[in-house]
């Protein structure tokens, strides 16, 4: 149970409009009274995620998830209800009263918050060294040679780790931080064979790795000469999980939402080059392969991705690995190709934004780029080359879920290599005279009469009056009566999120979100006539149910008993009532 007062929860919901909250995570487009986007909770190619700003609710017609702004944040951030309310409260300036911490709780300060605090202190230290300390002169000189000004360095929270062994260690000790906690974050390491610690990053230019909300979670350190390793990154920790973090995501959220796309590069300076050139929808993988959580993160903000890796063999292999993931996740992706002697940083520094835009325009769908590159690398004039080509292409071709897209690629590939499509089908495993069965689509249940009546009550005040006059208990079964009575009890427009919080069944709540999120079809409806149709249908159903119960009882009663004649009379009365409703 939440310890947050109900009035504070209401205040947070009122001051955190659902459209604004969800738009911080994903791209939405207006569609009638609603806004639509690609659902962040499941893979899809057609937008089925709906947001109704007027009612403060969302619903996905693909996976059935629905809720209010707090529900959305709970799912996206993996938070409990109180945590999500506090998260939103902080963003919109609502003060949530906190009970005093016990002595034990103070001693056991939340590990995660402490990790953020330590990283923030380290970031401040490295930033100060780069900006003003004599020890940071080498870092300032290096950035100047690469054309990076102070404003850009500040945007990226770049810093410099001085050459000494324990500069950061001593700084954090003076701040009263336990060094065992710092070691867990990989900022310092234990000395071998003796007591004490030494700094992990020394004589390196540092990029701050941030989470979605701009909090420092790790660092990437680059040497300024040809020594190896060129880069050292923070290890995984309580707050830094490489498979879930993309460098620059906090800077790119707005650009990705506005442009509907994300450009993915490999390194920090590649990211910096594109961002400075005006391509603000850029993120970087920073030494790790792209993962399903990365794609899920991108899906929140973008509808497609552009891969921009180095033009060398390693870059091409990384692109192929990423392709398989994009195909499996059903996320559209294209490939931007730079000359083999270039990386994105060197190309943009030489050619600028104007030289890069044509590459963006000429980008190919990722699967097309893959098979065309394969055609160039293999001699497919002979049998051996054709077999090698098919062996490489077929497992990737199978990952394309859309049957039309896959079929078109099959035809292109067979024509390019000179093989029969039936041979390719045999390799893939498709029956000669058929196609593979497609995944079953989620069937949407049609709304029941009681649910239709609830939507009418939410939309039309005159229906609320009719229900009140007729009596909600005569129209609704126990499952919906509580919600109907809650609507009757409210003055003015119903507070849908508050009403639906009273529904205990997740399945029922999801169905009602789906009904309430979209009501454009009710615009031209005669509300009073619709109420009468619902009323008659409900009464017919009630009579039908009563008739069945009486018929079952009649079959068990002695024909000579008084009850037998009573049941016959009741059945006749029900038939008469039904005939009047027809």
Notes on the structure:
The chain is an alpha+beta fold. The protein folds into 5 domains: 6-92, DNA Primase, Chain A; 107-240, DNA primase DNAg catalytic core, N-terminal domain; 244-369, 3-Layer(aba) Sandwich (Dna Topoisomerase Vi A Subunit, Chain: A, domain 2); 378-428; 449-581, DNAb Helicase, Chain A (Orthogonal Bundle). The chain is built from 26 helices and 16 strands. The strands form 4 sheets. It has a 5-stranded antiparallel sheet. A 5-stranded mixed sheet has the order 13-12-14-15-16, with helices on both faces. A 4-stranded antiparallel sheet has the order 6-9-10-11, covered by helices on one side. Helix 3 (69-77) packs across helix 4, helix 20 runs parallel beside helix 22 (478-489) and helix 25 packs antiparallel against helix 26. The model is unreliable at 433-447 (pLDDT under 50).
Tally of extended strands?
16
CATH architecture of the largest domain: Alpha-Beta Complex
| Coarse structural class | alpha+beta
**For the residues shown, what is the average pLDDT?**
85
Strand line-up across the major sheet: 1-2-3-4-5
Any idea of the CATH topology of the largest domain? DNA primase DNAg catalytic core, N-terminal domain
Question: Span between N and C termini?
Answer: 49 Å
The named CATH superfamily of the largest domain: DNA primase, catalytic core, N-terminal domain
Largest sheet: 5 strands, antiparallel
CA gyration radius, whole angstroms: 32 Å
Shape, per Cα inertia axes: globular
Helical fraction equals: 40-55%
């Amino acid at each position: 149970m939440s310890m947050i007062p109900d009035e504070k929860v209401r205040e947070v919901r009122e001051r955190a409009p659902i459209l604004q909250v969800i738009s911080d995570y994903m791209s939405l487009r207006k569609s009638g009274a609603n806004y639509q986007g690609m659902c962040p909770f499941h893979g899809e190619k057609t937008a089925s995620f709906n947001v109704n700003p007027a009612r403060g609710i969302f619903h996905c017609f693909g996976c059935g998830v629905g809720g209010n702004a707090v529900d959305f944040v709970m799912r996206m951030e993996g938070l409990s209800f109180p945590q999500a309310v506090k998260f939103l409260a902080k963003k919109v300036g609502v003060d949530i009263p906190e009970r005093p911490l016990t002595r034990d709780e103070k001693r056991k300060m939340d590990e995660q918050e402490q990790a953020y605090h330590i990283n923030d202190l380290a970031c401040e230290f490295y930033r100060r060294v780069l900006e003003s300390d004599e020890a940071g002169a080498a870092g300032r000189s290096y950035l100047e040679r690469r054309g990076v000004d102070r404003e850009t360095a500040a945007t990226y929270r770049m810093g410099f780790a001085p050459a000494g062994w324990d500069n950061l260690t001593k700084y954090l000790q003076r701040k009263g931080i336990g060094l065992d906690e710092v070691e867990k974050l990989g900022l310092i390491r234990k000395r071998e064979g003796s007591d004490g610690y030494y700094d992990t990053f020394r004589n390196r230019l540092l990029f701050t790795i941030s989470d979605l909300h701009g909090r420092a979670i790790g660092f990437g350190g680059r040497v300024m000469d040809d020594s190896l390793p060129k880069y050292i990154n923070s290890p995984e920790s309580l707050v830094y999980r490489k498979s879930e973090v993309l460098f620059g995501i906090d800077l790119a959220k707005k650009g990705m939402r506005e442009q509907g796309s994300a450009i993915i590069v490999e390194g920090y300076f590649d990211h910096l080059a594109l961002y400075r050139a005006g391509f603000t929808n850029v993120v970087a993988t920073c030494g790790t392969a792209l993962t399903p959580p990365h794609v899920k993160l991108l899906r929140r903000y973008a509808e497609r991705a552009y891969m921009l890796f180095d033009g060398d063999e390693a870059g091409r292999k990384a692109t192929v690995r990423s392709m398989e993931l994009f195909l499996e996740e059903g996320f559209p992706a294209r490939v931007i190709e730079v000359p083999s002697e270039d990386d994105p940083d060197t190309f943009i520094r030489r050619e600028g934004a104007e030289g890069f835009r044509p590459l963006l325009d000429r980008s190919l769908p990722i699967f097309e780029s893959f098979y065309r590159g394969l055609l160039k690398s293999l001699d497919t004039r002979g049998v051996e080359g054709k077999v090698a080509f098919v062996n490489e292409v077929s497992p990737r071709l199978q990952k394309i879920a859309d049957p039309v897209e896959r079929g078109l690629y099959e035809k292109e590939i067979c024509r390019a290599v000179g093989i029969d499509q039936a041979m390719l089908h045999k390799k893939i495993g498709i029956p000669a005279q058929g196609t593979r069965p497609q995944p079953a689509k989620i069937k949407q249940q049609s709304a029941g009469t009681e649910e239709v009546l609830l939507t009418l009550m939410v939309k039309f005040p005159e229906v609320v009056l009719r229900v009140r006059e007729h009596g909600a208990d005569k129209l609704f079964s126990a499952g919906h009566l509580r919600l109907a009575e809650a609507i009757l009890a409210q003055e003015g427009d119903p507070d849908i999120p508050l009403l639906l919080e009273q529904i205990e069944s997740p399945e029922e709540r999801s169905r009602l979100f789906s009904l309430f999120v979209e009501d454009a079809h009710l615009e031209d409806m005669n509300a009073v006539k619709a109420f009468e149709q619902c009323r008659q249908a409900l009464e017919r159903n009630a009579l039908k149910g009563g008739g069945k119960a009486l018929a079952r009882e009649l079959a068990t009663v002695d024909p000579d008993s008084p009850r037998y004649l009573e049941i016959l009379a009741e059945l006749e009365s029900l038939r008469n009532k039904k005939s009047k409703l027809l």
